[in-house]
Amino acid sequence: MTLRLRPVSREEHLAFIASRPSASHMQVPSWGEVKPDWRAESLGWFEEGGDRPAGVGLVLFRPLPKLKRYLAYLPEGPVIDWHAPDLDRWLAPLLAYLKSRGAFSVKMGPPVVVRRWSADAVKAAIADPGARRLGDVPATEHEPGADGIADRLRRMGWQQSEPGGEDGFAAGQPRYVFQVPLAGRTLDDIQRGLNQQWRRNVKKAEKAGVKVVQGGYDDLPAFYTLYTETAARDRFIPRPLPYFQRMWTALTAEDPDRMRLYLAHHDGEVLAAATMLTVGTHVWYSYGASTGRRREVQPNNAIQWRMLTDAHAMGAAVYDLRGITDTLEDTNHLLGLLRFKVGTGGHAVEYLGEWDFPLNRLLHKALELYMSRR
């Protein structure tokens, strides 16, 4: 039986998201308002005779200069039954609809976990001089069915995106992330899961008088000052302040708890700040920022522990520290960030990655060439 696909209202979209344990924060309607260079549309899949969506997707359309043709992007989505044996029943109507809307290529990020590595396994891999990439290290856990989903996508003509960026970070969304499971664990369990250095640093911050507070819209400039310092230190291009102001306005209008801002104060100075996003039972550490001053009072550990504590109190099932590098060589400047996240005692997670479907091969190839030269 075929599925019908049509645009849905914001209310229909949100009602479906609310009916599930969670979905990516990039698949809620408000995320489209965060991206003004893209045109956003909410889509819903319907069973024959059904009046409520069986799946939804937020599609972002990016126009090609001077042409009425678009790249259609579903970041970390769509929110459908990925384990359905008849996956084409979901994706064929999507491709047909997007083609009718002028899309020359479709990019999506199936929210499907492939493998997990325990903190101990990642720590051992970092210490092993023969281990070059996390993906080459035996996983602690394999998710059944993930390989079958990848095979079905290839048979349909989808192409797995080559990892872009440097050190395993994709040009789109990260394929490798680090997550701390919270479901069924007490706060004491989570604290015991922290490594010795982490527990010591949390205590050190508390003893030094570091105070972590929740901020609001007016505190975003303070966050941004630290964020630009972090960007210079860690060698990435910072987003502009209006991006975060727009994110705050859009996400909190949709749900007051969708986005939070935390600031770590010490002796009247903000030393670290971080944003936290929530959809259902999934909580993300989204953006972090810190100064190089007074690092000995451990504001970064203090702020993460407060966010972990709050996520647990909210009933979250997982605390997601987002992207990690899969490159394990000592020369990799992102290895320190991986070590920091491993200290939480969670696990590294590999997702299925991003996939492309060229609807117009010539324009798709031109886009690939452009992206490779950026």
TrEMBL record:
* InterPro entries, A to Z: Acyl_CoA_acyltransferase, FEMABX, PG_Glycine_Bridge_Synth
Check the UniProt entry and state the signal peptide residues, or none.
none
**Pfam families under this entry?**
FemAB (PF02388)
Q: Which UniProt keywords apply?
A: Acyltransferase, Cell shape, Cell wall biogenesis/degradation, Peptidoglycan synthesis, Transferase
Name the family.
Belongs to the FemABX family.
Mind telling me which PANTHER family this protein's record contains? LIPID II:GLYCINE GLYCYLTRANSFERASE (PTHR36174:SF1)
- Which protein are we looking at? Lipid II:glycine glycyltransferase FemX
